[in-house]
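Example record for the data management plan.
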Amino acid sequence: MNIDLRGQTALITGASGQLGRVMARTLALCGADIVIHYMRNESKAAELQAEIEGIGRRAVTVQADVTKAGEVTAMKERALGLTGAVDIVVANAVVQYKWTPVLDQPIEDYISQFESCVIQSVLLAKAFLPDMVKRKKGRVIGINTECSMQNFPSQSAYVSGKRGMDGLYRVLAKEVGEYQVTVNQVAPGWTISDKDRENLTERQESYESNVPMKRRGTDQEIANVVAFLASDLASFITGAFIPVNGGNVMPTI
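Corresponding structural encoding:
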């Protein structure tokens, strides 16, 4: 049984980032054409485009601030110019900021997290879901976080944004389910990426000791779940929040 995304186009926001680039590469290896969104890292986006084209898939890079309606609309127009339809939308981009206690966290950080988690997802839905509804097929995948279930000190802005995102996705799944469009979330733990490999920081024993599998996950393991949810193999899964963290957090019934 193979994951076959041939004939489909996937848009990944934040595709030039640590996790996004592996998602883009993985979906391309499954046969999808790729819309590579980036905010600032144009060189990495161009490098990723060349890599994807090198394996025989079509790719286009798009710069946009995904918290701005006009820029998301422009991104949609460029994306549709690739194949005429976007079948898979992966909301991966998020604003980075310094984590501090609630009493010290600037209000601007809460606003940025709400915009990059919730508003981004709303704008992507408004831009791409109407076509999916018409075709009665589509995949929306949001990248959440295990932090949404942990609620540890200093995580407040990040957690509030991601928990808002979670509520939006659950409602959206109910609203578009009858059109055979699925809406799901992948929640990574503290994941090993290229940055860790370059800096030799893959091992984090204080974190790993609390993980039932006693290790950190990898960027490829996150991308594998995204690919599964994007495929027909996951055609009857919607409204799910799927932790990919070796059991570090476990949703309850």
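Summary line stored alongside the record: The longest strand covers residues 181-188.
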